[in-house]
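Researcher: Last one for today. Full complex below.
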Amino acid sequence: MLYGCALGSEENPSGYLLINTALVPVGSTVTIIKRQLMIITIMLVIFAFFISLFMAKHISKPIDSITEAAENLAKGDFNTRFDGRGYLEVKKLADTLTYAEKELSRVDTMQRDLIANVSHDLRTPLTMLKAYAEMIRDLSGDNPVKRNEHLEIIINETDRLSLMVNDILDLSKLESGKQKLSPSEFLIGEKLSEIIARFKGISEKMGYSIHFTPDEEKLVCCDVVKIEQVIYNLINNAINYTGEDKQVYVRQINRPDGVVIEVQDTGEGIDEEKIKLIFDKYYRSENHKREVVGTGLGLSIVKAVLKLHNYDYGVRSKLGEGSVFWFRISQNDVKDVNQFTE
Ligand code: ADP
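Model: Here's the assembly. Have a good evening.
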């Protein structure tokens, strides 16, 4: 019923006006709409299902391929490709893994080189030891002069061997983070003179000259054994790579930010490209000379020790003119000489 009223007077109406409408079509419309809604809902659910299935596949595909590539990498295949097409995050992950793969591959190659170098270097003194021991047994055993000469070579080669083994052990200890610093106070100028004096034997025998330019004496506080090794390795390298004039210069330079130690040679110098590599573990130049003991680990030990101390270090080099290796004992570890208590 839409509308209803009486016609004529209120007490005695002459008729009634009633307006109504049939409800049947509305009911059927509701039913139709309900049915349509149901169909649309079902269709939407099915559509959403397929869309999510497609999306899931699309997203997981690059992740699956990265997982597969990572499995190959874990098996030791360093040529595998990480393809991260699709989403930014997946691309980032792929790039990170590609970088990790490159680094792993580099370390793997270097490790192989190290084993090749070290075994080659270990074999040489071992061969010498065997040869001279046999010579003493078969030839020079009864000749005291010759025998002593051969025994001297055996002793030198044994020293060379133990130095190599020590270098390898030192580096592995330093790199594993197990080595802690044991700082103590010492006079840096005095220490430098003492180390240079240790090279006296080789300088005299082979004609090398090591010139030391000291600065005002300073008291420093750091791990004396390790810093000694750094200075020793740098001088050893300078002797090994210096030019025909066989000159090596060692300098102590006091600066406001610390004490700088420089070791200069007059050799061929180092290519700018190679400077980035020489402090790397296992890196070794092809034209390595064997006059002075070297394992290819000297500069890696230098780097590890200086990093442990947090000291700056570096190298300035000019091709054909030589190189200057330097490091700086930071001012925090430098004290007034008057504070020295021996
Ligand atoms: P090693 O000298 O036993 O090969 P190092 O770790 O001490 O090992 O040095 C690594 C490389 O750095 C050397 O093989 C050489 O190529 C380069 N290098 C080191 N010191 C010098 C130097 N004073 N002059 C030129 N090259 C050097």
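The chain is about 55% helix and 20% strand. Residues 15 and 338 are 130 Å apart (CA to CA).
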